[in-house]
Every structure is written in structure tokens, then in C-alpha cells.
Structure to design on (882 residues):
């Protein structure tokens, strides 16, 4: 009796879904509340009952996305066998592909947990690359605007990292994020994002992302920030050639006090980098090699060392017009002029210096930066930068206005002002009726 | 000092300017003026310039620093004689130890003399103390002041500098006229210089200068010298130079217990050369008629400043080299010699390259009597510090002047600033978002 009744009610539910899904927003809201009420109906541990998965065939993921989501979530909440995992992953990825964005946005938590299970399955199957594309679609569908950070972002970036699909990850990183819900998501997003940028050798963006993690407001020190700080030191050395151990004013005091204690070998590396001598840098690397390896940072450290050669050669372009390869090799502490030639050649190809090598004389002639800032592209670039910055300024002033009207803020400020200014008759109500 | 023949110098060839002393020996034979080679310091003549405690200290310093044994012994001998004229038994014992019997039995430890001096000192001290106590009970301001002053003199003569200073300073409360105050300041300055505490020197100099209408020309000159010394010790070469250059010729031989007129010329000249730019050098040093009196006493300094101004760098640097050994024996200047010389040399290099679009490094190396490789290294350092705007063509050994393209630099800076603004504002908005969320969380928690 019970069994039938419950199966019937499930079927009734399915029918409701099919009926209301195509309707107006009010219908959808009604459906949503119905689904919320019937949650425990779906998620029953009674194995005799038909699993919700069996009803999935009656629902169309593209039309009945919300209902489908609930059923899918219920069915995947049960432990999945290894053989079933591939199927489950497939069905979830199909759903993600087909579902309607506005419907699933009504139940974001469920969507997120489904996607996370998908990620787990994919990782279990040791094929992270299978998850990259679906996750990308999932992220885009979950986002209300491209400025919002969803909890799925870090999962997506993690898959990209594991699958080594850095370019796909970069496409998501190019959006500017302004709204953040969960600090933890933000930290992970920036940290993984930084790693992806390092992989793509975009050190400026990596430095920016890691800087955001390190200086984010936090009340207690967390491991993500510690790891991010280590990478931040390395990336700063590669990108800017220097690292200052003083934190900007807005860094949280927790971070300021504690971060340095965990990253001593990296700070030593930064100090030896600032001497400008390759031999010192290399000896420092040798000393702390195990620690760098344990943190999985040895590759980046090697890039730091090669960046020092580059920087020394770049400094030579400031003082010399022509210089023999021998002299370059001597002043930069390379072993032979052949090595110097290789370095200079690589740098010319990467566009890091402007020079010509005369092999007959063994001379390098340094040229000026040919950029004259007169081309159309440059004008467009400057123009678009101006537009972008103006938009940013507007956004900033809008946010300022918004906060000054925010009741929470006013309440707090009103309280403090009242405490200190007796003569201040500017009455800000202490308690606002919210 | 031999009389110089200036005529040869004024009839300069055009070639001399371009060669810049490049064909070094040739240029010199054209001028009939000989360059005075670095002769060894005549210890007696040097010591004759000073009096009082500084004479002894300088002699001891020379003995300590110079390598020449005969000069050493000469200095020690003179120091011994000088000390015997005074009453400082501590230094006496020091000197005896340093002499170590090398000057024969006349210069050995003289315990009889030392004891006699000590006994006399003790008696005098008691007498002074009694007198002072008497004055204090009688509360006669002038006598108390004289009493403390005498105490100060007494301690100074016996080498207890800290005590001397304390006593001189105590007279301040009993000074009635500005003359007294100036007298006190001068004493305090003297002791501070001997002690090496130049912060006191500066403060007492300013105190003395602020005293209304008690400062006559001689005192003013003394104060300038003292201030100059203080700045020199503090490595503020520009200020030191200005102070020395303002010293009036009235100084003469009136401050031999601190500084000789020759020193004013040397210190002032070298500091000016190291720190002034061309216009200041011309107006304040070369055209300064007051300072000319001092420069006459040390012709080498006068010559080398002239050479520098007229771009004869080789001879200027040669004069400097010759003077170096003796300057290292000077008690105030010795640890500044290297710095000053480096600064003068750098200025010479910068001044040499300044008017040219391209410079042949070979000729320049000749002018500065150095190798091309060494010159390249020096120029590289100056270019890196942005003191010379140029680039070196190492292949052809030419230095090309390079003026930064302002337009390009501006564009670059603009784009960079825009990027930084972008980054910073975005980061700020993110942080605001995080804090808002955090705050909302806390607020909602509080409400529950």
C-alpha cells in the first residue's frame, strides 16, 4: 500500500513537472515549492522502491530542467558503483548540456552538488579532460552575470589544471569578477587561476590573482593563502624582478603576521635574487631544493633562475649600444659566448629585447623599442583602455553611493558617531526598521 | 712653495682643450708650471701650524698611521716634547709606550715628572674646589662662573674631557653677558671636537650664533670652521663646503687649537669640488675673494680646482693623487678621502662627456690616465645610476649621448598607470564584496 502510494505520488510529481515546466514564472515558482516539499519523497533509502533514475526517462532535461535536476540529484545521492559511474557521468554531462539556465538557477545548491558529483566521478575515472567542457557549460549557465563568481568556478579550474587544458581555463579567467559569495570559493578560484596563468606563462595575470588571495580579508590564516603566498613570491620575481616583503595596508593583520613564517625558503630566494648574481641564486636554490620540490614549485623556481639571466641581459641594453657576446657571457655569468648567443636569440624571439646579432664579429647590437605609439591599433588600444577605466570609475562611484545608503553601514556608523560627537545633531537613527 | 709662472697657463692652445690633457706629457711641457710632486709631509712644519691638545693628537695620529718609521719617530718625539710642556700624564704614558725606547734615554718614561705633575694637579684641584665652594656660598655669579671655567680648563689640561665639558656647560647658568655665553660655547665646542662628539658642536655653534651682537669677525670665522668640521664628520659635504667657504680671512692664526688656515682651504676646496656643480664652483670658490686668501696657502688645491674647472682632468687627478698620501694622515679628513676622491672623479667623468654627442673612449681613457676596459666599467656604473645619459658602443669603443624620447616614455607611463589603476580598483571592488558578504554573515548570525 505504502509502496504504491509513494510510487503514485512520485508519478504525480512527474506529471506536475511535465505540466508546469512550460508555464509562466509563477508556475515555475509553484513547481519549485512542490519539489521542495517532496524532497524526502525522492530521497528514500528504501532500495525496494524504484530509484528516481527510472523516472528520468519520462522527463525532458531541456524542458523540465528543474524537475529533472531534483530527480537527478536524488538518484546520484545514493552510492554509485564503479561500473555505474561512467553512465552517471555521461547522464549528468548530457543534462548540463541540455538544461535551461533560468530553471536551474532557481535551485543553485542542487545544481552545484550535482556538478560536484560529476567532477568526483570524472576524477575517479581518472579522465579529468572529460569533465572540462561540461563544467565550462555548467559555469556559464549558473552565472547570473559574467561578473559573478560561482562555487563551480574553482572546480572547473581544478579540472583544467589536472587535465592540463590551460587555455580553456584562461578563457574563464579573462572575465572580471566583482561579486563574490563565498570566501573559500574566491581563494580557490584565485589560487587555481594563478597556477593556470603560470602554466600559460602569463605572469602578470598570475601575479594579480595571487595578490588578491594574499591580501583578501580573512579572519584566520588558511592553507590556500599560505600556498598562494609562496607562489606569489616566485611570480613577482619573474614578472617584476623584485619582491617587497612589506604588505599593502589593506592586507589583513592575520596574513601580515603569519604568512612569512611559512615561506622562509622563498623569502631567502627573493633576497638572493636581489643581489643580481646568478651564483648566489643557484646556491640558494640548491640549498632549499627539497622544500621547493615538496611544494611542487620546483618548475617555477627554475623559471625564476632563467628570468634572472634575462633581467641581467636587459640591464645591459640600458648601457650598451653594441656589445660582444664574450662580454655578455662574462657580465651575466654564462659559461660561453655560445650560451649567450642562445639566450639573446631566445629573448629576441620572445620579444623581450630588440637586438640584432652579428655572427661574423660576434657582436650584438641593441636597438630601440620600435613602438612609436603612432599606429591605429595603438590609438584604439588607448581609446578602449580609457573607456574601460571610465566604466570602472563609474562602477566604483556607484558602489560608493550604494554603500552609503546601505542600512547596515548607516546603523554602524550612526552608532559610532553618536558615541563620540555630542554636539553633532545630525541625527542618524540608531536602529533602522529593516 | 715655489712661485708659479701663470703666463704659460693663460696662453692655452685650442689643442689643449680637445686633447683634454690627452697627449698628457706634451701638454705639460707647454705649460711652464711644474706640478708639485707629492713630497713627504714635513712633520715639523705641519705641527707648527697647531697648538694645544690638537697638536699632540695630530702628531700621535700621524705616528699611528704613517708607514715611514723615521716620520713616525719624528712625530712621536715632537709629541713627547709637547706633552712635557703640558700636564696630561695619561697621554704621556701612552706616548712613552709607543716610543718604546727607540728614541734614546731622553725620551723614556719619566716617573719623577709624572708624579710631580700628578701631585701638583691634586693640589690645584683641591684649591679650585675650595675656591668654588666659597664662591657658591657667597653666591657671586661671576666668580662661580670663573670657578667652573677654571675647573673646565684644569680638566681639559689633564685630559679628562668629559669632566671638562660638564664644567664648561655648567657655567651657562652663571653667564651674564653675551660675551660670556660665546666664551662658554667656544670652550664647549673645543672640547666636543676633541671628544669627537660633533652633534654638540653643531648645537653650540648655533647657540653662539644666536647670541645677539657678541659675535665679532674672528669669533664668527671660528664658528664657521667648527660648523664646517661638524658637517664634514657627518658626511654632509655640500654644507661643510659652504661653511668653510664662508669663513672670513680674519681667522688667520686665531684658531690653531682646532684648525689651521691651510686646513680650511683643503677641506673647503675638496668638499666643494666633490659636491658643487659648475656654477656654484665658479661663484663660490673661484670668484670668492675671501677664500682666495686661504687658497694662497695651499696652491695645490687652488691649482687642482682651476684644472677641474678648465677641464684639465689629467693634471687635476694627478694633483689629487699626490695629495692623497698626506691627506690620509689628517685627523679629520682621513676617512672621507676615498669618498671625496670618488665623487670628484665621477664628476670629472660626467663633466667630460656632457658637452659631446659622441666621445672616443680611447682619447678619454688617455685623458683620465686609465685603461679602456677600466673606463668602460666606470662609465657603465655611472650610466646605470643615470648620471650620464649615454650608450656605449663597445665594438667601436665610442660613447654616444642618448636623450630619452619623452613622447614614447610618456605613452608607456600612461599605459602602465592605466593598467595599475585597473588592477587596483578591481581588487578593491573584490575586497569590498568579500567584506560585505562577511559582514552580512555576521549580521545575520547576530540576528538569530
Amino acid at each position: 500500500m505504502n509502496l504504491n502510494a509513494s510510487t503514485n505520488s512520485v508519478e504525480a510529481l512527474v506529471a506536475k513537472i511535465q505540466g508546469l515546466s512550460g508555464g509562466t514564472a509563477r508556475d515555475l515558482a509553484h513547481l519549485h515549492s512542490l519539489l521542495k516539499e517532496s524532497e524526502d519523497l525522492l530521497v528514500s533509502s528504501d532500495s525496494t522502491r524504484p530509484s528516481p533514475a527510472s523516472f528520468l526517462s519520462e522527463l525532458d532535461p531541456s524542458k523540465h530542467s528543474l524537475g529533472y535536476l531534483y530527480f537527478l540529484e536524488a538518484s546520484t545521492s545514493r552510492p554509485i558503483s564503479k561500473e555505474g559511474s561512467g553512465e552517471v557521468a555521461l547522464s549528468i554531462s548530457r543534462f548540463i548540456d541540455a538544461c535551461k539556465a533560468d530553471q536551474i538557477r532557481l535551485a543553485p545548491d542542487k545544481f552545484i552538488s550535482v556538478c560536484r558529483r560529476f567532477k568526483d566521478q570524472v576524477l575517479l575515472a581518472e579522465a579529468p579532460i572529460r569533465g572540462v567542457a561540461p563544467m565550462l557549460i555548467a559555469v556559464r549557465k549558473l552565472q547570473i552575470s559574467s561578473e559573478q563568481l560561482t562555487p563551480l568556478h574553482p572546480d572547473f579550474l581544478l579540472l583544467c589544471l589536472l587535465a592540463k587544458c590551460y587555455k580553456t581555463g584562461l578563457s574563464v579567467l579573462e572575465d572580471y569578477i566583482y561579486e563574490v559569495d563565498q570566501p573559500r570559493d574566491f581563494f580557490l578560484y584565485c589560487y587555481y587561476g594563478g597556477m593556470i596563468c603560470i602554466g600559460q606563462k602569463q605572469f602578470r595575470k598570475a601575479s594579480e590573482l595571487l595578490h588578491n588571495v594574499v591580501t583578501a580579508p580573512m579572519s584566520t590564516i588558511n592553507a590556500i593563502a599560505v600556498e598562494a603566498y609562496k607562489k606569489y613570491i616566485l611570480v613577482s620575481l619573474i614578472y617584476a624582478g623584485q619582491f617587497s616583503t612589506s604588505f599593502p595596508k589593506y592586507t589583513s593583520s592575520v596574513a601580515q603576521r603569519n604568512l612569512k613564517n611559512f615561506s622562509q625558503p622563498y623569502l631567502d630566494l627573493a633576497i638572493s635574487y636581489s643581489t643580481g648574481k646568478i651564483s648566489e641564486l643557484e646556491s640558494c636554490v640548491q640549498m632549499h631544493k627539497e622544500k621547493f620540490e615538496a611544494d611542487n614549485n620546483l618548475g617555477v623556481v627554475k623559471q625564476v633562475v632563467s628570468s634572472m639571466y634575462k633581467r641581467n641581459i636587459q640591464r645591459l641594453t640600458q648601457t650598451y649600444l653594441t656589445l660582444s657576446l664574450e662580454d655578455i657571457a662574462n657580465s651575466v655569468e654564462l659559461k660561453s659566448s655560445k650560451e649567450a648567443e642562445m639566450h639573446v636569440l631566445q629573448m629576441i624571439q620572445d620579444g623581450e629585447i630588440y637586438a640584432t646579432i652579428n655572427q661574423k664579429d660576434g657582436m650584438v647590437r641593441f636597438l630601440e623599442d620600435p613602438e612609436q605609439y603612432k599606429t591605429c591599433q595603438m590609438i584604439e588600444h588607448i581609446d578602449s583602455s580609457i573607456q574601460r577605466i571610465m566604466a570602472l570609475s563609474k562602477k566604483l562611484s556607484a558602489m560608493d553611493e550604494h554603500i552609503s545608503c546601505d542600512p547596515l553601514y548607516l546603523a554602524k556608523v550612526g552608532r559610532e558617531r553618536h558615541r563620540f560627537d555630542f554636539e553633532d545633531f545630525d541625527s542618524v537613527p540608531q536602529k533602522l526598521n529593516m | 712653495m715655489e712661485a708659479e709662472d701663470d703666463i704659460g697657463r693663460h696662453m692655452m692652445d685650442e689643442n689643449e682643450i680637445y686633447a683634454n690633457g690627452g697627449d698628457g706629457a706634451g701638454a705639460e711641457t707647454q705649460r711652464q708650471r711644474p706640478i708639485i710632486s707629492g713630497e713627504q709631509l714635513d712633520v715639523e712644519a705641519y705641527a707648527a701650524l697647531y697648538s694645544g691638545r690638537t697638536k699632540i693628537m695630530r702628531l700621535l695620529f700621524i705616528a699611528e698611521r704613517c708607514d715611514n718609521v723615521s716620520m713616525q719617530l719624528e712625530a712621536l718625539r715632537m709629541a713627547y716634547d709637547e706633552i712635557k710642556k703640558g700636564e696630561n700624564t695619561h697621554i704621556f704614558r701612552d706616548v712613552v709606550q709607543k716610543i718604546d725606547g727607540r728614541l734614546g734615554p731622553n725620551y723614556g718614561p719619566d716617573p719623577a715628572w709624572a708624579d710631580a705633575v700628578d701631585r701638583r694637579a691634586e693640589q690645584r684641584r683641591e684649591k679650585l674646589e675650595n675656591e668654588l665652594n666659597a664662591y657658591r656660598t657667597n653666591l657671586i655669579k661671576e666668580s662661580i662662573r670663573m670657578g667652573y671655567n677654571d675647573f673646565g680648563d684644569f680638566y681639559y689640561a689633564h685630559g679628562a674631557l668629559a669632566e671638562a665639558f660638564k664644567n664648561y656647560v655648567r657655567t651657562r647658568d652663571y653667564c651674564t653677558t653675551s660675551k660670556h655665553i660665546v666664551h662658554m660655547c667656544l670652550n664647549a665646542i673645543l672640547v666636543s671636537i676633541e671628544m669627537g662628539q660633533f652633534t654638540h658642536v653643531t648645537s653650540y655653534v648655533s647657540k653662539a650664533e644666536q647670541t645677539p651682537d657678541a659675535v665679532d669677525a674672528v669669533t664668527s670665522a671660528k664658528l664657521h670652521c667648527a660648523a664646517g668640521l661638524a658637517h664634514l664628520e657627518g658626511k654632509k659635504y655640500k654644507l661643510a663646503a659652504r661653511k668653510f667657504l664662508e669663513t672670513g680671512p680674519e681667522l688667520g692664526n686665531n684658531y690653531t687649537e682646532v684648525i689651521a688656515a691651510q686646513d680650511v682651504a683643503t677641506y673647503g676646496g675638496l668638499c666643494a669640488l666633490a659636491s658643487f656643480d659648475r656654477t656654484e664652483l665658479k661663484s663660490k670658490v673661484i670668484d670668492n675673494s675671501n677664500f682666495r686668501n686661504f687658497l694662497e696657502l695651499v696652491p695645490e688645491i687652488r691649482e687642482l680646482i682651476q684644472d677641474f674647472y678648465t677641464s684639465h682632468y689629467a693634471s687635476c687627478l694627478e694633483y689629487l693623487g699626490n695629495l692623497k698620501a698626506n691627506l690620509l694622515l689628517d685627523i679629520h679628513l682621513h676617512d672621507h678621502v676615498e669618498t671625496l676622491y670618488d665623487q670628484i672623479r665621477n664628476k670629472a667623468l660626467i663633466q667630460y662627456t656632457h658637452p659631446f654627442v659622441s666621445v672616443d673612449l680611447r682619447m678619454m681613457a688617455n685623458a683620465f690616465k686609465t685603461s679602456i676596459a677600466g673606463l668602460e666599467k666606470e662609465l657603465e656604473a655611472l650610466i646605470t645610476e643615470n648620471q650620464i645619459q649615454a650608450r656605449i658602443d663597445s665594438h667601436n669603443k665610442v660613447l654616444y649621448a642618448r636623450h630619452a624620447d619623452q613622447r614614447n616614455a610618456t605613452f608607456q607611463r600612461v599605459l602602465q598607470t592605466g593598467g595599475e589603476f585597473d588592477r587596483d580598483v578591481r581588487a578593491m571592488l573584490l575586497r569590498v564584496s568579500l567584506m560585505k558578504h562577511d559582514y552580512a554573515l555576521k549580521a545575520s548570525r547576530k540576528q538569530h
